[in-house]
């Protein structure tokens, strides 16, 4: 089945979510290694609710954390995209770029490739001016992607939604602007 992609990079297709993505995303979310730097592992229902929120955001805004397929075999591997963040901080509300991929796809450059293409879409198609990326300071892998994207570190802060999770509370925020 050929899925309709909103845009592509060299190896990846980015699209709106479908019901058939729910079981695979739930499987990715259930992997403790994938969710290592998050406060909890989402259950199946929470994954369904997340996908519904992404579908609604895509319909309203033209963006979301996009469902991502490998173009060579059309296999769904997770998400990469942009999303509104409204938690209370000095730099929100903002548009955040983020990614979550199946562990079997780590180390292949997909997060960086996909995030670069999403930034291009955000700046050149949507006309956005500024994108942030946020992660706990313990998440070295995500921070390395931010650096590869040539984002600039703008803050280290205590995330208000992670107060109950002391090992995750201290976060970094990176920013990139449309030049």
Briefly say what this structure is.
This protein has 179 residues and is α+β, with helices and mostly antiparallel strands.
Topology:
Blueprint: E1 7-8, E2 12-15, H1 21-29, H2 44-61, E3 65-70, E4 76-85, E5 94-101, H3 110-125, E6 130-136, H4 140-148, E7 152-158, H5 166-169, E8 170-177
Antiparallel strand pairs: 1-2, 2-3, 3-4, 4-5, 6-8, 7-8
- Beta-strand content estimate: 25-35%
Mean pLDDT: 93
Largest sheet: spatial strand order? 1-2-3-4-5
> What's the CATH architecture name of the domain at 7-129?
3-Layer(aba) Sandwich
Radius of gyration: 15 Å
Q: What is the tally of beta strands? A: 8
**H/E series, N to C?**
EEHHEEEHEHEHE
Please identify the oligomeric state. Answer: single chain
The CATH topology label of the domain at 7-129 is Aminopeptidase
Relative helix content: 25-40%
Structure classification: alpha+beta
Looking at CATH, the homologous superfamily of the domain at 7-129 is Gcn5-related N-acetyltransferase (GNAT)
CATH classification, class level of the domain at 7-129? Alpha Beta
Largest sheet properties? 5 strands, antiparallel
Instruction: Tell me the number of helical segments per DSSP (H or I, 4 or more residues long).
Output: 5
What overall geometry do the principal axes of the alpha carbons give?
Answer: globular
Stretches where pLDDT is under 50 for at least 5 consecutive residues are: none
Report how far the terminal alpha carbons are from each other.
38 Å
């Amino acid at each position: 089945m050929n899925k309709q992609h909103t845009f592509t990079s060299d190896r990846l297709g980015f699209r709106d979510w479908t019901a058939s993505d729910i079981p695979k995303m739930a499987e990715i979310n259930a992997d403790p290694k994938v969710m290592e730097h998050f406060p909890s592992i989402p259950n199946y229902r929470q994954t369904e609710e997340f996908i519904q929120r992404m579908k609604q955001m895509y319909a309203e805004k033209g963006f979301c954390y996009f469902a991502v397929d490998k173009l060579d075999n059309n296999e769904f591997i997770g998400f990469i995209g942009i999303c509104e963040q409204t938690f209370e901080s000095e730099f929100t509300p903002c548009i955040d770029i983020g990614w979550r991929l199946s562990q079997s796809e780590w180390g292949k450059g997909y997060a960086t490739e996909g995030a670069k293409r999403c930034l291009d879409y955000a700046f050149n198609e949507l006309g956005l001016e500024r994108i942030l990326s946020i992660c706990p300071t313990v998440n070295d892998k995500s921070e390395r992607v931010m650096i590869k994207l040539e984002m600039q570190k703008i803050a280290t802060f205590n995330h208000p939604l992670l107060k109950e999770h002391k090992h995750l509370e201290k976060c970094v925020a990176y920013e990139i602007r449309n030049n």
